[in-house]
Design brief:
The complex is a heterodimer of chains A (about 250) and B (about 180). In chain A, about 45% of the residues lie in helices and about 20% in strands. Chain A has about 250 residues and is an alpha+beta fold. Chain B is built from ten helices and no strands. The radius of gyration of chain B is 18 Å and the shape is globular. The chains are: A alpha+beta (about 250), B mainly alpha (about 180).
Chain lengths: ~250, ~180
């Protein structure tokens, strides 16, 4: 059979109108790949069917366009692999979107508040801890100052030094406390040191930095003391006192 | 949702593949009356035909990636989707049952000898062309194209050998072609 006979056999019409059997369709598609004139004849018939169909047009009912579009969108949302076209006036998906956005914002806000409350709480706790220790120190100080067994030694500045402090010495428990009234700041490699003088022999009662507030400092115990002295020493001094740097002194006996 | 742009079939296919709403709008505006006409020639009830039209557009939208332009024009592809959907509906149980409850005069699509043998006065378009064919051809086109019967089924209905059904359908179609 030559190609012209094939073209006029009715196969084109069967194929285009969907009446050809599967094996006829397969054969026709193979022939189309080989014979451009067959494709041309097919296209011509397709165009005449199309023209006839356009002439046979019947207007679909009013509103079907919108109905169909929403059906398409619903079928698109059911199939997640498809790209879902965005349509601004579709309230269903945009409602969900808003809900999701609101949830995220709410979550972030909650997380932020929780974090800032946590921080604030930590700050308050630290403040309370500081105040507690200050209060403890002040209570201790108050107790010592009013204890009848405690002797108060007023340390006065020497050689024009303005340094002054009170030393509290409990002669029964041998505890020594000190409240700094005025101690000038020192270079960072220097510290003050408190001494007990027994006769003329100095005994180390501890190194200290000028405190921030006039809280009570617990010093080393002293069994005996004729006088107390404060010197300026190198930081961490382990040797004897540098009496040239004697700042203030107070006697236990008047 | 309306467009003024004029797409070629190729452009329309590539727009449809991007699944944008402009493409749907264009497709609907340009092709829905023709496709609705095709459906109407098979399903005369407008409401049912509108349901079919919806299925057709959803299918076109979902299956556009399967369209192969080497096998034919886009319209041909859509036409066949529409015809197949209409025939599926025609042969569905609920539709057949609904026809039984209607007055006989509207009963144009049942497989009664009447509807096959007597051309309907209100036939339009392609159906009108088919009505002009000689009787033995017209019956074959009606049963195969408009009612979707297979060659085997037609061979049984008309009590004709399968080969005869096949050659007559081919002849009927070539004649029909000269009328379009």
């Amino acid at each position: 059979m030559n190609i012209q006979e094939y073209i006029s056999s009715g196969i084109i019409e069967s194929y285009v109108l969907g009446l050809a059997l599967p094996e006829e369709r397969a054969e026709f598609e193979k022939m189309c790949a080989l014979y451009p004139e067959l494709v041309e004849a097919r296209t011509n018939f397709e165009l005449s069917v199309e023209k006839q169909a356009l002439e046979d047009s019947v207007a679909p009912p009013v509103g079907s366009k919108e109905k169909i579009w929403s059906a398409i969108q619903q079928s698109a949302t059911r199939n997640p692999s498809k790209i879902i076209p965005m349509e601004p006036r579709k309230s269903r998906s945009s409602g969900l979107r808003w809900f999701a956005a609101a949830s995220i914002i709410l979550f972030l806000l909650t997380a932020y508040l929780a974090y800032s409350f946590y921080n604030k709480n930590r700050q308050l706790q630290a403040k309370i801890d500081r105040n507690d220790s200050l209060l403890n120190a002040m209570t201790t100080g108050d107790k010592i100052m009013h204890d009848p067994n405690v002797m108060v030694v007023n340390m006065v500045g020497l050689k024009g030094s303005s340094s002054s402090a009170n030393v509290y010495w409990d002669s029964t428990s041998t505890d020594v406390y000190m409240v700094v009234k005025n101690m000038p700041k020192l270079p960072s490699d220097k510290q003050y040191q408190l001494w007990a003088l027994i006769g003329s022999k100095p005994v180390d009662l501890g190194l200290f930095d000028p405190p921030q507030s006039n809280i009570i400092l617990k010093m080393k115990n002293a069994q005996k003391a004729d006088a107390f002295a404060i010197t300026i020493e190198n930081r961490g001094n382990t040797g004897g006192p540098d009496l040239g740097q004697l700042q203030s002194m107070g006697k236990t006996k008047l | 949702m309306s467009t003024n742009t004029k797409y070629s079939e190729q452009e329309l296919v590539s727009q449809l593949l991007k699944q944008n709403d402009q493409a749907f709008s264009y497709l609907y505006d340009n092709y829905s009356p023709a496709l609705f006409g095709v459906i109407n020639q098979i399903i005369s009830n407008k409401e049912v035909a509108a349901d079919v039209l919806q299925d057709v557009f959803v299918n076109i939208w979902k299956k556009i990636h399967l369209y192969d332009d080497t096998k034919g024009r886009l319209f041909t592809w859509m036409l066949n989707i529409a015809r197949n959907a209409a025939i599926d509906k025609l042969r569905s149980r609920p539709y057949q049952d609904s026809l039984k409850n209607q007055p006989l005069t509207e009963n144009v699509n049942t497989i009664t000898a009447n509807s096959v043998v007597n051309p309907q006065q209100n036939d339009i378009g392609l159906k009108k062309q088919v009505a002009k064919l000689k009787e033995e051809y017209r019956v074959l086109i009606d049963l195969s194209y408009f009612q979707g019967f297979t060659h085997e089924e037609i061979s049984k209905i008309l009590n004709l050998p399968l080969g005869t059904v096949k050659t007559r359908i081919r002849s009927a179609l070539t004649q029909l072609r000269t009328m379009l």
